[in-house]
């Protein structure tokens, strides 16, 4: 199987690449930073891997690499852990919305076309609450991240208009700092909740988390 992956140098993407190659598949890494990708995936350790430079929000020759792929996994997006200036908020939105739009555009141009698109979203779709419980049937929230997720998902769903299989993967990953949690859980020095350009410590009482390895299982 041949799979193209955006966001491959991130937490989930790097583990996904390792798993794909360990199972004998071929992977194409679409990256804004080829030098970083080469450091992350040295040819000696990842011989069945191709690295392709691309600009996520622009059409280009990189779109030709989608032809012949069996699937596309779209994990790319500007980090949300930076200060939320108006400029960075625009990058958060455009990197996901336009980035996914260009992936769907590439699939439309591909010949032969991949049969599956797996496009990530986030639990920010539901908004934020310290008391509410959310599941797949819950309506979207009305804050900035909820808006981003809705527009992000809407672009991914346009692949269905091409008449091909479509899969949607929600990966709600947060960094946590509780020492009592298992070491294999994603952890860092703090969880920053960023709104209106301000950062504050997160409360462990309402942190959502997912097992790192589980995010890449079939």
Descriptive report:
By secondary structure, the chain is an alpha/beta fold. It is built from 4 helices and 8 strands; from the N terminus they run E-H-E-H-E-E-H-E-H-E-E-E. The C terminus is likely disordered.
Task: Give the tags.
218 residues, alpha/beta, six-stranded parallel β-sheet, two-stranded antiparallel sheet, 4 helices, 8 strands, 17% strand, globular, disordered C terminus
Q: What kind of assembly state do the chains in view correspond to?
A: single chain
Largest sheet: 6 strands, parallel
The largest beta-sheet arranges its strands as 3-2-1-4-5-6
What would you call the shape? globular
Question: Average pLDDT across residues?
Answer: 79
Q: Which regions have little confidence, pLDDT < 50, spanning 5+ residues?
A: 172-217
Structural class, please?
Answer: alpha/beta
Number of helices: 4
What is this structure's SSE topology?
Layout: E1 2-6, H1 11-22, E2 26-31, H2 34-40, E3 49-53, E4 71-74, H3 86-109, E5 116-121, H4 144-157, E6 167-170, E7 192-195, E8 198-201
Parallel strand pairs: 1-2, 1-4, 2-3, 4-5, 5-6
Antiparallel strand pairs: 7-8
Helix pairs in contact: 3-4
What's the quick description here?
With 218 residues, the chain is of the alpha/beta class. The protein is 26% helix and 17% strand.
